[in-house]
Design goal:
570 residues; 4-stranded antiparallel β-sheet; 16 helices; globular
Length: 570
């Protein structure tokens, strides 16, 4: 709770008084530093941090509810905001979003360590952090998609940065949306290996005022297929990779993208205590072993930055990132602020990391016709699930949308849902009996509420949980009478006045929901509902037999009304 209050105070400070540091002139006359190449304004420094704090409130609530759903797994005593989504559950949509987030978190690994990491990049003294971070996440996205080493997919950040706009120099800088839009939509041919541009001593970068001759030579080598690390000819009409990007609006979406595509790119505000917390000793220690960055009240912002996030730790509320400042062996400019492997950990909710709508994920495939995918059938290399039709009749029905699936050993619920493109809420609620009995969820509110507010919360929660259970949600409130005698008062939506009397000191919401777990036992049969079998074909391997009657029966029993309405009844 103390950390939450600190984060809120810091967010308010950000909004009330932008920092004054040597740098460029802001719109309000305050000097701001954009020293690492990410565009910085008084607005996005303050509002961005406030958005992170708000999202952190929501995510903490989701983690709290996920812990309740899965039997109270490790939150180390840290509590949520007590407002069920930072602003209170005032609409059904609020509760549905919170339920979705809690399902996704509970079904996912609590900790995700980085995989298939590329070599650590070093931007030196140049303002190229956006290009460096973008190159990293593209490299990891393609390696993740093809289950290959990132060493097989060298992406040159210099090509993205210097060759995308004439006149750009070491100190020009870039912003994330502009960079992603340009690279993905306008010039995907710039995704090419480093040897196309050739070897140029990094110390010369600040003195080069015209990169166009070097970029033109790189274009010619790429078009001729003369870059040594690839025999493919790389042109605008036939780029090396085909990528797409999207902004990510909440923490669980960010974590989902990291698991499936390797990394995401985020803005970060670097404070003047970064090199204090990552001192010279950090150069000899892995970022996974060095203490996580923690904000202190006296720290001041120095510049805007961009980093790749490659993992997370929900047990300790931490992001795992990889920087572009080199490491213990290849950083010539820095003795502080770096670790032995370029990784770092930072507490969630700090420094603008994970700002909603300003954090992006990239997914890539090999462009059809390149040597890695000559015939445009790269999807065949992806892992495919052994999805089965419910019965013989549905096996012959090309418009069938109901299937079954047997859980494999050490397979997470999240991996099933995400690999098949299923809806979390629909999948978990259809298969709720496979998760066991419904879980009693209790959630303590941080503040007392009026009778009307309590009634509204109960009505909203009841609407969302009604398809699962006939049990109604209720509040249990601690009450002290005039003689200071304590008692508990229970209130349902029909009558909440007793839970809002003077003397009420705290209320806890109680309701039932699915007992979502990260894993189900191997062999458990699950029902799947797809919009169309063709959507499933690219993600699964159809087996005509044996059928999975348990799933068919479970499907009808657990969702009889919905099953009949959707044509899933057998």
């Amino acid at each position: 709770m103390a950390q939450r209050l600190l984060a809120a105070v810091l967010a308010a400070v950000l909004l009330l008084g932008p920092w004054q540091h040597p740098g460029r002139q802001g719109d309000n006359g305050v000097l701001l530093a954009a020293g690492q190449g990410l565009a910085v304004t008084p607005d996005n420094l303050g509002a961005g941090q406030l958005a992170v704090v708000t999202e952190m409130n929501v995510f903490e609530d989701a983690l709290e509810l996920a812990a309740e759903l899965s039997g109270g797994r490790g939150l180390r005593g840290r509590r949520g905001s007590g407002n069920l989504g930072a602003g209170g559950v005032t609409t059904v949509k609020d509760m549905q979003q919170l339920q979705l987030a809690s399902y996704a978190v509970a079904a996912s690994p609590k900790v995700w360590r980085p995989k298939r990491l590329p070599p650590v990049r070093d931007q030196g003294v140049c303002s190229t952090c956006v290009a460096e971070a973008t190159a990293t996440i593209v490299q990891m996205a393609i390696a993740s998609a093809l289950k290959e080493s990132t060493a097989n997919w060298d992406i040159d950040a210099r090509s993205l940065y210097y060759c995308s706009l004439k006149g750009r120099t070491c100190k020009t800088g870039w912003d994330l949306p502009d960079a992603l839009k340009y690279i993905v939509d306008q010039a995907p041919e710039l995704l090419r290996p480093a040897d196309c541009l050739g070897s140029i001593p990094r110390k010369e970068y600040p003195d080069i005022t015209d990169w166009e001759p070097k970029c033109e030579a790189a274009r010619q080598r790429a078009a001729a297929g003369s870059c040594s690390s690839t025999a493919d000819k790389i042109t605008r009409e036939k780029p090396l990779l085909k990528c797409s990007y999207r902004s990510l609006s909440n923490f669980y979406q960010m974590q989902q993208h990291i698991r499936n595509h390797g990394a995401i790119v985020s803005r970060m505000i670097v404070n003047d205590d970064w090199e204090v917390q990552f001192n010279e000793s950090a150069r000899n220690v892995s970022g996974l072993q060095w203490p996580a960055y923690t904000r202190n009240v006296s720290a001041k912002a120095v510049f805007g930055h961009a980093v790749a996030l490659v993992g997370y730790d929900n047990e300790n509320y931490q992001w795992i990132g990889i920087n572009s400042w080199g490491n213990d062996t290849n950083s010539n400019e820095r003795t502080r602020g770096v670790t032995s492997d370029g990784l770092f950990r930072i507490e969630m909710g700090l420094a603008g990391v994970g700002t909603p709508e300003q954090t992006y994920g990239v997914s890539c495939t090999v462009f059809p016709g390149n040597q890695k995918d000559l015939h445009g059938t790269g999807w065949l290399t992806k892992q495919r699930r052994q999805v089965q039709p419910l019965n013989a009749a549905s096996a012959l029905n090309v418009t069938a949308d109901c299937y079954s699936y047997r859980v494999q050993r050490k397979e997470t619920v999240a991996s099933i849902v995400e690999s098949l493109g299923l809806d979390y809420v629909d999948f978990i609620q259809r298969n709720r009996r496979q998760f066991g009995r419904l879980q009693n969820v209790s959630y303590k509110l941080a503040q007392t509420k009026t009778a009307v507010e309590l009634q509204k919360i109960l009505t909203v929660v009841s609407t969302v949980t009604q398809p699962l259970t006939a049990d109604k949600p209720y509040f249990v409130c601690a009450f002290y009478d005039a003689k200071a005698v304590a008692s508990n008062v229970t209130c349902f939506a029909e009558a909440t006045d007793a839970c809002a009397r003077t003397g009420t000191v705290g209320c806890t919401l109680h309701y039932k929901d699915v007992n979502v777990r990260e894993e189900l036992p191997a062999g458990v049969c699950l029902a799947l509902h797809m919009l169309h079998c063709r959507r499933l074909a690219a993600r699964s391997l159809f087996l005509q037999s044996p059928f999975c009657p348990t799933a068919a029966a479970e499907f009808i029993i657990s969702r009889a009304g919905a099953a009949a309405a959707s044509g899933c009844a057998t």
